[in-house]
Automatic annotation (TrEMBL):
It comes from Nannocystis radixulma. It holds the Pfam family TetR_N. PANTHER family: HTH-TYPE TRANSCRIPTIONAL REGULATOR RUTR, MYCOFACTOCIN BIOSYNTHESIS TRANSCRIPTIONAL REGULATOR MFTR-RELATED. This is TetR/AcrR family transcriptional regulator. Residues 6-65 form the HTH tetR-type domain. The keyword Transcription regulation applies. InterPro entries: Homeodomain-like_sf, HTH-type_TetR-like_transc_reg, HTH_TetR, Tet_transcr_reg_TetR-rel_C_sf. The lineage of its organism: Bacteria, Pseudomonadati, Myxococcota, Polyangia, Nannocystales.
Length: 200
């Protein structure tokens, strides 16, 4: 029955993630093992305890995949297009990570305690990096002069709402609607921050 050598750690973590998101932190390791077709003991051989498995499956990586794109920009292309690209990348990440953080919190895992310094927490780093992007865009005259932190909070806040709402209400948004929403967010922000014309 057990196929531990044919089941990778990545496969275990992906199935564990799916089970925890579907059933909450109370999802049993027996269920996870059954879905994978491995013995219950294999999970504990690989990950030690259920809490360790939960953390490994749901905790965000310190290196958020979209940060390299933020650090590299802005470039010389149309700035609205670049903001939309960032919105798409960040939204894809948030749609994956927001439900995971909610399950971790329900299990009593304090994500804040996992970083040695507050500055290293993923939301703090994300805000700092995006504010840096807006600051560079403002300095280059691509956007009008506002506080970069204010533009960042408006941008990230608008992107975070839908994943939280979707998770809490179980009301899904389809792909085209999500894309239309992100375009609306970017149009609204760029309409406010465009360097031409009078400030709104």
């Amino acid at each position: 029955m057990a196929r531990p050598r044919n089941t990778t750690d990545a496969q275990i973590l992906e199935e564990a993630r799916a089970c925890f998101l579907e059933h909450g932190a109370g999802a049993s390791t027996t269920l996870i093992a059954e879905r994978l077709g491995i013995s219950h003991g294999v999970l504990f051989q690989r990950f030690g305890t259920k809490e360790q498995l939960l953390r490994a499956a749901l905790l965000p990586s310190p290196a958020q995949p979209w940060m390299a794109q933020v650090r590299a920009g802005p470039d010389d292309r149309d700035v609205r297009t670049q903001i939309l690209e960032l919105a798409e990348e960040i939204s894809t990440y948030l749609e994956r990570i927001v439900p995971a953080l909610a399950v971790l919190r329900s299990a009593g895992v304090q994500v804040e305690s996992l970083a040695e310094r507050r500055e290293e927490l993923p939301p703090v780093r994300a805000r700092r990096e995006v504010a840096g992007w807006f600051s560079r865009a403002i300095e280059r005259g691509l956007l009008r002069r506002v506080r970069p932190e204010h533009a960042t909070d408006l941008f990230l806040g608008a992107l975070q709402f839908r994943p939280f709402h979707q998770h809490l209400s179980s009301q899904g948004f389809d792909g085209p609607d999500n894309h239309a929403y992100r375009q609306f967010v970017v149009d609204t922000i760029y309409g406010t921050l465009a360097p031409t014309g009078e400030p709104p």
